Amino acid sequence: MGKGEGCQITLDQQLSLSCFTVFSSGPKMERKIAIIGAGVSGLLACKYTLENGFKPIVFEARSGIGGVWSQTIESTKLQTPKSFYQFSDFAWPNSVTETFPDHNKVMEYLQAYAAHFNLFPSIKFDTKVTSIDRLVPSDEDEHSWDLWGGTGKPFSSSGKWNVTVQEARNVSSATEAYQVDFVILCIGRYSDLPNTPDFPMNKGPEVFDGKVLHSMNDDLAAELINGKRVTVIGFQKSAVDVAAEVANRNGVRYPCTLLFKTVHWMVPDYFLWSTFRSLNRWTELIIHNPGEGFFSWLLALSLSPLLWLSSKVVESCLKWTFPLKKYNMIPGHSFLNQISSCMFTVLPRNFYDRVQGGGLSLMKSRSFTFCKNGLVIDGETTPLVTDIVIFATGYKSDEKLKNIFKSTYFQKQITGSSAPLYREGIHPQIPQLAILGYADSPSILRTTEMRSKCLAHFLAGNSNLPTIKEMEHNVMNWEKSMRLYAGESYRRSCVSVLLQKYSNDQLCKDMGCNSKKEKMVFG
């Protein structure tokens, strides 16, 4: 997004960009903006569009705000230190003293934020968006445009979006259509459409006499799990959290099995603080990035062994502290590769104590199928008898994003490219629409807030976008840099080692703001 009004900020001020807030009672009030989702990204989009003189309408399928935080297991807590998960203009209350607050306190914080900035009147709860469709005149050829939307500006004199909604609690209710000038998708990555494996005929859940759930299920409660043999599938955050909670409830009498294909590095919560503090300006001196000059390239090349060394130090520390070798839990990839792929898995408290005590069993396997009384594990001679199988295998985020579009052309733009978003918010081929909260990072709230401010700055008419080709070229250049560190685990929507340069400096540049680098830390 192009340059606007100039101002200067230090890094401590980078998330308080009041100089970009534009209040207006003119034409902007007439522009209709739809925001889909009232999670963290939806709240931020609502707040900053309101501040810029718009009157957005927020559609939320649930009966409250919070997104994934409103539907999670009891033991869930922040995996980010709260100082990295804080709104720039609304601090955590002094009563929250924990570094990693639990989900109840996160929800209270989000509720307080929405109330403080009077966001609730803009939200239509229990309203599910079933589809969005772009309406354009028949003689308009969008595919021939050089500029986004034909002009590089946020609004079009002819094109509109049709947002179709329905009562979330009544699937047979009539639909209603809203015609808007701009859509902001804030539907997130970690909800609604579970990712579960496919199985051969007569070897899937249909032959199993027990219960099969996904970690997103509302009925994943104590009364269901207590006294049952439970197998959890997966090895990311939700999998280890669910397995640890089940093991804590059922103990050794009904041990929980954690079944997984790939081992990942798990770090204790007290270790995360130093990991986050290491993602600073000094670290980025040794990271290659697009457009770097010869000196920067040479410096990054000469200092790059420090990345390898720091990664090995962390790995050695984890192997020395926890019985990884004993339980065959040493990953085949480096710690650097993992954090560069935004895979931050926190080790639950007393995790290996539960393993040693017999309440939690770890089982690695390339594949498995279902049978009448449990699971048939590849390489095992006898079935794993179980009562409940819980898939904690993530979500089909690209498919969920694709499905909201009615147009097959826009659907192909999402699935065919894995959503190559300019500044992680604008798809070059989908005009008058932005996507917030889809990109992952070690400090997701802060990076989403920066993008929300930049988007509001753009909507207020203070900047224009580059050409479509320039945006696509920019996306490819940043992707190339990020692939250097994530390797085969690279995800396009992940922003990690280039956190400052990509999520702060580029957006500040778009808004005409000079992000000073006197303090060489993030935050």
From TrEMBL:
InterPro entries: FAD/NAD-bd_sf (IPR036188), Flavin_mOase (IPR000960), Flavin_mOase-like (IPR020946), FMO-like (IPR050346). Gene3D superfamilies: FAD/NAD(P)-binding domain (3.50.50.60). It comes from Citrus sinensis. It comes from the Eukaryota. This is Flavin-containing monooxygenase. Its EC number is 1.-.-.-. Keywords: FAD, Flavoprotein, Monooxygenase, NADP, Oxidoreductase. It is an enzyme of class 1 (oxidoreductase). Pfam families: FMO-like. Belongs to the FMO family. Its cofactor is FAD. GO terms for molecular function: flavin adenine dinucleotide binding; monooxygenase activity; N,N-dimethylaniline monooxygenase activity; NADP binding.
